[in-house]
Amino acid sequence: MIALFLLPNMLIFALFVLIPIGLNVAYSLTGGAEVFLPDRSFVGAAHYARLMDCTNALQPRTCRDDSFWTAVWNTLRFTVFQVSLMTVAAMITALILNRRIPAKGLWRAVFFFPVLLSPVVVGLIWRWILQRQGLANLMMVEAGLPPVNWLTERGWAFAAAVGVSVWAHVGFYALILLAGLQAIPRDLYEAAEMDGTPPARVFWRITLPLLMPNLVVVITLAVIRAVQIFDEAYVLTGGGPGTATMFLTQYIYETGFASPVRNPGLAAAASILMAGVLVVLTLIQQRLRKAEGR
Amino acid sequence: MKTTVTALLLGSALATGAWAGDVRMMWYSDGNEGEVMADLVSRFNAENPDIKLTLDNVAYQVIKEQLPIQLAAGQGPDIARMTDIKKEAGHFLDLTPYLADPAYWQTNFGAQMDWMRPDGSDAITGFMTQLTLTGGFANATLFEQAGVPLPGEGATWDEWVDAAAKVQASQQTAAAMAIDRSGHRIAGPMISEGAKLIGPDRKPAPLDDAGKGFLTKLIGWTADGKNLKDVWVSAAGATYRAGADEFINAAVPFYYSGSWQVANLSEKIGDGFDWVATGSPCGAAGCTGLPGGAALVAIKSTKNPQDVGKVMDWFAREDIVKEFSERALFLPAHKAVLEKGLDFKTEDPHAKAALNMFVKATGQLTEEAQQIPAWTPASDVYAALVKRVGEAMAGELSPEDAFARIDADIAEAAAKVAQ
Fold first, then answer.
1. Quick one: B211 and B306 in the same domain?
2. Does residue B221 share a domain with residue B370?
3. What is the C-alpha separation between B99 and B114, in angstroms, rounded?
4. Where do transmembrane segments lie in this chain (chain A) (predicted)?
5. Which end of chain B is more exposed for a tag (fewer CB within 10 A), N or C?
């Protein structure tokens, strides 16, 4: 009887998750530009070997597929910067929104509003702001400062990709932390206040430990989202300048679909390697949650 | 039961994507040709009530990136306007059995038939909606204000860039020149310098000194701020970017693109400033642009080939090609229309002069340049050029490293041809 109730869900899961994963694995083992699997020739692990063909993986230009390793390191760098910044920003936002401030509802809506925007819209808005003759440079010039090539200098473009991503998603993570903050019993704070505990000590000894389960969720979700970064960064910088903001998902998209030299098998192999990383991250999250539970 | 059967029939009919008489045409526009086409489609539908022709206007990016996937998957529209026609030729329908008079097509469009059919085939798959030629445009007003004379006929790339750099310095423009982020756009100047892209066996040739020479100059012009960096570094990989808006906004005095921009520039610049088409600057081996164009092709997966044949016959008519070309400001590929001459429908003297300049420039095409449109690996070579030159312009690769990477990518393309 239980199996009968589970069957519809399992069928949908198989149709939209298991079968596509199987197909992706099959594609990664075949070569050519053809779309239909039967038309493609079996190449075994050739695509994986090509992706791993490196003299020194720390230096992408020594790799046969330098674009892949460039994208890997860009994604890693992006994840470290974006998740760190996002977590701190979400924490500060949540702490402020948890205080007794005027128009609290309005401020919560303001911070959450970018989450509701389409990533493409986010990318376009910021592209208009940061382009050579955009709003940011107009304001800089008005203020007597020299204009900055936000999107054509490697460092600035990378910082813009990180910053825009944080701006777009911080509201969501702040909301998770806010829920955690509101679940912390008030009497703990009252006791600390009666003991004359300084605010910093209250934060480190009460707020942070009790917020840890929410923080683990925030960090895990943020890491997974960061590894999958594509849409807003693609619209904002197109992966440029050069390959400074080309992330793994864009590499997969371009290799499999957008490039005139399409290679769906190579793209599938790269996506499976990326999925492997995400599985590892998810397992780490589960471990952390279990440890938290103990 | 009856309802179920009806629903199944309805579902299967929708799944085929086409009712008898339904023809979908995927179209993109650079200038006003979409409006002209919409008008012609209305007239076609009025004259042919048994066929319902629908025009789907999409962005050029969709034609470049999504349509090839649809074609490879056996999907897509019945007819499409495309530019990567040689590469996708295997997906096109041979219209010969569905045309009223195939000989008319051979006579009038025969010169470009090989551009849109597989090597060795004699299929009629479509016709060119326009012939294009890459070439430059200069902002004559900025040159005049700077007191710099426009370089004359036979001026080299160096002379053009030097003159434009003087205008840049005088008029404080963002850069001296812009060139589209496209392998097709930089291939012409490379060939002008004497580069051979096609090897003796028709496989892609490794970069030669002439090709490297132009690319080294281009990367250098970008590094010292003469070539507008934004167009090339605003994307990674082989993504296409046009620099037209920079020229329209007077951010650069010289812009290298092609004849398809004439209507766009005419419409958007208006009387903002005076502009002229310059043809292609010269190199050591010539002053060639690269010919090409967009074709209207029938797609093999169509469920209504008879109707597609009728639609194609109607749009290939001499009077229709003439009207379309005159209103869209395009150079037609139709032999009889070209022989009888055109009266372009524009009051803009800049546009008329520019079109005449491009017609004149067709006389300067080198043999190598004329072979490119019917050469299948061209788009693979363009992709390698754009990707690596873009990385060199962004400062990630030295020119030498970029050339080594281009050669490796070209060798892969050559291996593909060998297969």
1. no
2. yes
3. 18
4. 78-97, 109-129, 156-181, 202-224, 265-284
5. N
| Chain-chain contact of A33 with B395 (C-beta, under 8 angstroms) | no
CATH code, domain carrying B371: 3.40.190.10
Cβ proximity of B219 and B292 under 8 Å: no
Residues of A in contact with B384 (CB under 8 A): 261
Based on the fold, state whether residues B33 and B127 are members of the same structural domain. yes
The identity of residue B335, as a single letter, is K
Residue B15 lies inside a defined structural domain of this protein: no
- Give the gap in angstroms from C-alpha A199 to the nearest C-alpha of chain B: 47
Whether B77 and B175 map to the same domain: the answer is no
CB contact under 8 A, B230 and A152: yes
Q: Mutation test of the interface with chain B: which of A152, A235, A236, choosing the one with the most B Cβ atoms within 10 A?
A: A152
Mutation pick from A27, A261, A262, A266 vs chain B, by most beta carbons of B within 10 Å, is A261
With contacts defined as CB-CB under 8 Å, which chain B residues touch A245?
A: 236
- DSSP for A207-223, please give it: IHHHHHHHHHHHHHHHH
Does any domain span residue B67? Answer: yes
| pTM of the predicted protein model | 0.85
SS (H, E, C) B347-412: CCHHHHHHHHHHHHHHHHCCHHHHHHHHCCCHHHHHHHHHHHHHHHHCCCCCHHHHHHHHHHHHHH
Q: Across the interface, do B234 and A132 touch by the CB < 8 Å criterion?
A: no
Instruction: Provide ipTM, 2 decimals.
Output: 0.83
* Interface residue ranges in chain B relative to chain A, Cβ cutoff 8 Å: 64-66, 68-69, 72-74, 84, 87, 174, 229-230, 233-239, 241, 249, 251, 379-380, 382-384, 387, 390-391, 393-397, 401, 405, 409, 412-413
A220 touches chain B (CB under 8 A): no
Q: Which of A124-128, A221-225, B16-20 has the lowest mean pLDDT?
A: B16-20
List of chain B residues whose C-beta atoms are within 8 Å of the C-beta of residue A259: 237-238, 383
Non-local (6+) Cβ contacts of B403 within 8 A are B207, B212, B215, B388
In terms of domains, do B126 and B172 share one?
Answer: no
- Which residues are CB-contacts of B395 (< 8 A; sequence separation ≥ 6)? A154, A242, B223
Structure tokens at A262: 């399409």
CA B326 to chain centroid, in Å, comes to: 18
Residue A222 CA to residue A243 CA, distance in Å, equals 23
Which strand (E) or helix (H) includes residue A44? none
pLDDT at B200: 84
In this complex, the residue of B230, B237, B390 whose CB is nearest that of residue A259 is: B237
User: Do residues B96 and B124 make contact, with C-beta atoms less than 8 angstroms apart?
Assistant: yes
Domain that holds residue B270: 134-291+354-418
Does any CB of chain B come closer than 8 Å to the CB of residue A263?
no
Handedness of CA A63, A65, A71, A76 (dihedral sign): negative
Radius of gyration of chain A (CA): 23
Residue A6: strand, helix, or coil: helix
pLDDT score of B209 more than 90: yes
Q: Which residues contact B35 (CB under 8 A, 6 or more apart)?
A: B29
Residue range A78-97, pLDDT digits in tens: 999 999 999 999 999 999 99
pLDDT for B14 equals 41
**Chain A interface, best mutation among B60, B64, B396, by max A CB count within 10 A:** B396
What does the pLDDT look like over B25-71, one tens digit per residue? 999 998 889 999 999 999 999 999 999 999 999 999 899 888 998 99
Question: What is the Cα–Cα distance from A178 to A104, expressed in whole angstroms?
Answer: 12
Task: Check CB contact of A30 with chain B, cutoff 8 Å.
Answer: no
B135: β partners: B257
